[in-house]
Design brief:
The protein is of the alpha/beta class. The relative contact order is 0.18. This is Response regulator receiver domain-containing protein.
């Protein structure tokens, strides 16, 4: 069982992703925007952080940049979810330190597969 932070501003996606990952046995914390995500990251240790690219207050990209500058958090696995699926956006996220990029829309089973690969 992994401790995962999900930062997603869309309630329906939060519920879908949250239920899917909890059904797989993972412990999940939720953030509704980038600022809340960063607060949770500073307070807890996560095995995996899933960030929506476009969120209020701080984008997933901005949160990613902050995480990589916190020495004890910099080794955490990070996944970006985004409707911006152009190659240039994916490369930008990877260059900033994202370990995986999943374009929206995606299937819950695809998400589970990538999560399990990242955690193994």
């Amino acid at each position: 069982m992994a401790h995962i932070l999900l930062a997603e501003d869309e309630p329906v996606l939060r519920m879908l992703i949250g239920d899917t990952l909890e059904d797989e046995g993972h412990q999940l914390d939720i953030a509704c925007d980038g600022e809340e995500a960063l607060q949770r990251i500073e307070q807890s240790h996560y095995d995996l952080i899933i960030l929506d690219y476009m969120m209020p207050k701080l984008t997933g990209y901005e949160v990613l940049l902050h995480i990589k500058h916190i020495p004890e958090k910099g080794s955490c696995k990070i996944m970006i979810l985004s409707a911006k699926s152009q190659h240039a956006e994916q490369e930008k996220m990877r260059a900033a330190g994202a370990d995986a990029f999943i374009p929206k829309p995606f299937s819950p089973m695809e998400l589970v597969r990538v999560v399990e690969d990242m955690l193994s």
